[in-house]
Amino acid sequence: MAFPEPKPRPPELPQKRLKTLDCGQGAVRAVRFNVDGNYCLTCGSDKTLKLWNPLRGTLLRTYSGHGYEVLDAAGSFDNSSLCSGGGDKAVVLWDVASGQVMRKFRGHAGKVNTVQFNEEATVILSGSIDSSIRCWDCRSRRPEPVQTLDEARDGVSSVKVSDHEVLAGSVDGRMRRYDLRMGQLFSDYVGSPITCTCFSRDGQCTLVSSLDSTLRLLDKDTGELLGEYKGHKNQEYKLDCCLSERDTHVVSCSEDGKVFFWDLVEGVLALALPVGRGVVQSLAYHPTEPCLLTALGGSIQCWREEAYEAEDGAG
Amino acid sequence: MAARDSDSDEDLVSYGTGLDPLEEGAGRMGRRSGACSELRSGHCAPGWATERDSVSKKKNGDEDLSEFGIAPKAIVTTDDFASKTKDRIREKARQLAAATAPIPGATLLDDLITPAKLSVGFELLRKMGWKEGQGVGPRVKRRPRRQKPDPGIKIYGCALPPGSSEGSEGEDDDYLPDNVTFAPKDVTPVDFTPKDNVHGLAYKGLDPHQALFGTSGEHFNLFGGGSERAGDLGEIGLNKGRKLGISGQAFGVGALEEEDDDIYATETLSKYDTVLKDEEPGDGLYGWTAPRQYKNQKESEKDLRYIGKILDGFSLASKPLSSKKIYPPPELPRDYRPVHYFRPMVATTSENSHLLQVLSESAGKATPDPGTHSKHQLNASKRAELLGETPIQGSATSVLEFLSQKDKERIKEMKQATDLKAAQLKARSLAQNAQSSRAQPSPAAAVGHCSWHVALGGGMATLKASNFKPFAKDPEKQKRYEEFLVHMKQGQKDALERCLDPSMTEWERGRERDEFARAALLYASSHSTLSSRFTHAKEEDDSDQVEVPRDQENDVGDKQSAVKMKMFGKLTRDTFEWHPDKLLCKRFNVPDPYPDSTLVGLPRVKRDKYSVFNFLTLPETASLPTTQAPSEKVSQHRGPDKSRKPSRWDTAKQEKKEDSVSEFLSLARSKAGPPKQESSPLVNKEEERAPESSTNQTVNKGVDAQAEGEGSRPSMDLFRAIFASSSDEKSSSSEDEQGDSEDDQAGSGEANFQSSQGTDLGETSSVAHALMPAPQEPPPSIPIQKMQIDEREEFGPRLPPVFCPNNKDKHKTKKEHRRKKEKKKKHRKHKHKGKQKNKKPEKNSSSESSDSSDSQSDEETADVSPQELLRRLKSLPLRRQ
Questions:
Q1: What is one GO biological process annotated to this record (chain A) (predicted)?
Q2: Cα B491 from Cα B310, distance rounded (Å)
Q3: pLDDT tens for residues B132-185?
Q4: Burial level of B757, CB count in 10 A (0-12/13-18/19+)?
């Protein structure tokens, strides 16, 4: 009562390049933080999946076992296992420590674009170009999926999972949200092939990026448009987008080698961060800190806010 | 003498406390004589007295008598004897306590130092005639049978063992004189020792006797020795006294100790268990003293289960609990065969009841009992009929037998008649039904449109299933009959009356009524009996129905305009009922939203399997309005499902080209457009169709039209022309209507689509004819297209290349693009005969496509056409060298 709450820091954007890692695994198809943001995964086009400490720039482990390029990966909540999917149509469950393949789920008819664990890492959801999402059970030895969500009319480019929802973006221009609790499927028409979807961290909104170079922030419950973010270029490629750690900014890759930051509420471009020549194909935002990972070509970059001082030994 | 007396007294004192002076002088001889008189009177057991006597004599006399050899010793022994006797019970109790005390043998000292005096109470009692070992009280006339040990005594383990308690008991049993009275039985004092430890209720510590001696050599004979052991306690001090202390082979054999078993003896196998039993040998306690229970020999069987489990203070119930009576299963009849046969299905029985109800009400006749249509109720003729035998003339039980032979033949004929006619009939009857229901609204009709459909569908199904057309010869009559069935299925009471032709005479009507009723009866019975013998196939492989999702995401056009206007929300959102898998819910820690449903995914409904439109999923939005001249169009070949994925690469461009009119139109349609299920006005159908069909008189044309990009996707009619539902009139109509706007076409397409769904059956005949001229047109043109589409579709937004996109490839891509087109063209040529038109559009399209790609690249240097992208991606080495 007596003291006012400390004024929250103004959000800082990660714009200081801290590190550039040459991953040495061909093109980096995706870069992902682990659950607490201390490590990151890179999916290479040379069929490998690599685990890094992005701040120190150390390679911790290489996971090989995919038959084709790895397109997406995710870590479990307890950091004990990883899942990945790739061009070999397989979804692989890895043991983090040993680097061994624990399970290999086959069943997709096309390459697997995206994989996600559910909250308790008991189910892997994989979205594929075969226009289906398959839910693989990690607990049992069942080889076939628990359920196949085949409502999409075209390839599934993005899948995100909350505690009771599955959010999927498809190339057919629709974003589908499967609500397990309500037993309902909400299908929002966006019109343009969707490249990436994500929940806001407060779980109230969904962010959709589509091939019309537009990101849209939709109200999760009603599907109403809350914001539209333009300025970047995304017309051909499957690029990632996300929200910043405190939902203050919308972040998106661009085909012109930049990462764009928009203020979420105002909708104005806050920053266009030049990363390099080429296409920024993937990015990942730290869950709690203003720290961004971008993937461009065969390397990843780690970005922090300007005020960031490298911690001891982390240089 | 006196000195000796005193000497002897002193000697005595050295063994115990001094005697009371009162006793000293007076009672010695008397007491002695008293004891002798007891002996003589026979009240004491002779053996007991003599034994005691001798013991005492031996004990005391060994030293005293041998040394001094004088009478007072005898008197002293008597006293000692008396004191021993009186304390006998107490002594036992003490010994028991000693045996169970933490330190065994601790009471040994007490045994050595015994007070040899009697309390005043004893003296008084004795003077009153009381004797040791007796109870206090008036003497009883007769002993109440053999004295059974009191439960109280039992529990505390202080009673004398029954065998050794009284030697005279056996005598008493044998001989009971009338005039002899007996003293009451002595009462054993209850030991009210307070519990001052924290042990469990029945805890007794390690029983040294059992632990050290008891289990040394052999298995305890628990049951044989149960009572003996209880009695043994008394003798422990005497017989086994020497064994107190640690003994055993491990400690060597002391001089005073009994030798153990031969340690070198060979063990015999008989000492080992050979069989696994539920009870351990011995009590299974190995020395730990569980609460020990009092056992009777005869109860040993029962006790076996309770060894070591009965707490002190508890005893086994003497009466066993009355066990539940188990009744044997009923005896089966001798000729019973355990085979279950299923009753006729519910639907048919309900139908029967309806039928019978209707019959009784309309005809006023007594009808046979409903539900008797099981196979047992069939008589020979019915069975023969079911089997297809020729019925024997004369047994007139079925409607068919009322018909003449000629009629029957005609029926057979009609049975083989084409479905065409049947379909027509049905369609017409449906229409009439609908009308009649509208004309005279009944409760069932009031339920509404949907229920009508359902009911009709059911009626159709049963009709189809039965294929039983008793009045096929007379279509009108058959129609009326079917109508009647339909009504009856809905449970309408006046079904019969309503279906009969009002123009008929009364007599005719009555006759027909009878006929219908009988036919229905026969139909129902045969239906039920036959259906009861078959089960439903798991998958109906030859059914012309297919499961498709009930709800479709449709109205892309409207949504698109909504998106353009940024009216997200209700306009762009579809909500479906979706059933997650139970296991998925479990894994997500979410309660199953539909716990009662076994459905997974979207609810599905059955649709006609062979309708092309199921697979094309062509929504009404055939209507991307494209009124511009063909040359302006984007040349991309859009598949029939283009509208689903309208904006793969060039959404923006396409949108650009959509004029506001179309938007307006689609919006308007979204408002006014009829939902899919509703039937569109059939009136317009014919007129509208004509133009379309003229455009697509042949598939060539259709393809051409498509190639020209006249619509960015072929219109519905193309497919209709190929597959099913175009008709003569259409192709005959003039071409001048070609100029109709696409929207019109699309609208009519919708109409056609809907109407064709509804009236498919009715139209089949005409369709069949209509197909005749067209058939040289092979459907595979679709697969070709599809192939191409698929190629494109396989790639969503692609992955960025490792290297920056190189624009140099463009030329090559274009070439390849063209080459592909050529290939396609060839394909088409090969397929179709329509040549003239082919070429131009092809050229057009290819040039257009290159144009468009050029223009694209002009617009945005980095942007490339899909084809080029595709090619590039394919040719690009994904791995970095």
A1: mRNA splicing, via spliceosome
A2: 73
A3: 777 777 777 765 444 444 444 444 444 444 444 444 444 444 555 667 777 777
A4: middle
How many C-beta neighbours within 10 Å does residue B580 have? 30
Residue pairs between chains A and B whose CB atoms are closer than 8 Å: 222
Judging contacts by C-beta atoms under 8 Å, the chain A residues touching residue B576 are 151, 184-185, 187
Give the predicted TM-score (pTM) of the model: 0.41
Q: Nearest CA of chain A to the CA of B725: how many Å?
A: 27
Distance, CA of B627 to CA of B661 (rounded, Å) = 10
Contact partners, residue B8, CB within 8 Å, separation at least 6? B64, B68, B70, B72, B73, B76
How many C-alpha atoms does B732 have within 13 Å on its Cβ side?
A: 5
- Cα distance from B755 to chain A (closest Cα, Å)? 26
Let me know if residue B484 belongs to a domain. Answer: yes
Q: Is residue B596 part of a domain?
A: yes
| Residues of chain A contacting residue B600, judged by C-beta atoms under 8 Å apart | 147
B597 in a structural domain = yes
Of the candidate ranges B320-329, B360-369, B861-870, the one whose mean pLDDT is the lowest: B360-369
- Distance between CA atoms of residues A110 and A71, nearest Å: 12
Dist. CA A167–CA B586, nearest whole Å: 19
Question: A184 and B575: CB-CB below 8 Å?
Answer: yes
What string of pLDDT tens digits covers the 315 residues of chain A? 557 766 666 778 888 898 899 988 889 999 999 998 999 999 999 999 999 999 888 999 999 999 999 999 999 999 999 999 999 999 999 999 999 999 999 999 999 999 999 998 999 999 999 999 999 999 998 899 999 998 888 899 999 999 899 999 999 999 999 999 999 999 999 888 999 999 998 889 999 999 999 999 999 999 899 999 999 998 888 899 999 988 899 999 999 999 999 999 888 999 899 998 888 989 999 998 899 999 998 899 999 988 887 664 444
The neighbour count for residue B738, using CB atoms within 10 Å, is: 14
Q: Which of B580, B602, B624 is the endpoint of a domain?
A: B602
Number of domains composing chain B: 2
B638 within some domain: no
How is residue B290 annotated by DSSP?
P
> Pick from A154, A164, A187: which is nearest to B793 by CB?
A154
Q: Does the distance separating the beta carbons of B802 and A27 come in below 8 Å?
A: yes
- State whether B802 and A180 contact (CB < 8 Å): no
Please name the CATH architecture into which domain A16-304 falls.
7 Propeller (2.130)
The mean pLDDT of B724-729, rounded to a whole number, is 43
pLDDT reported for residue B865: 62
Task: Report H helices in B532-629.
Answer: 556-564, 582-587, 612-616
Q: Which residue has the tokens 């004897």?
A: B81
Which residues of chain A does B796 touch, with a Cβ-Cβ cutoff of 8 Å?
A: 113, 129, 154-155, 157, 170-171, 193, 195, 238
**Strands of the sheet with A70-75, listed across from one edge:** A70-75, A81-86, A90-95, A101-106
Last residue of one domain, picked from the residues B602, B618, B651: B602
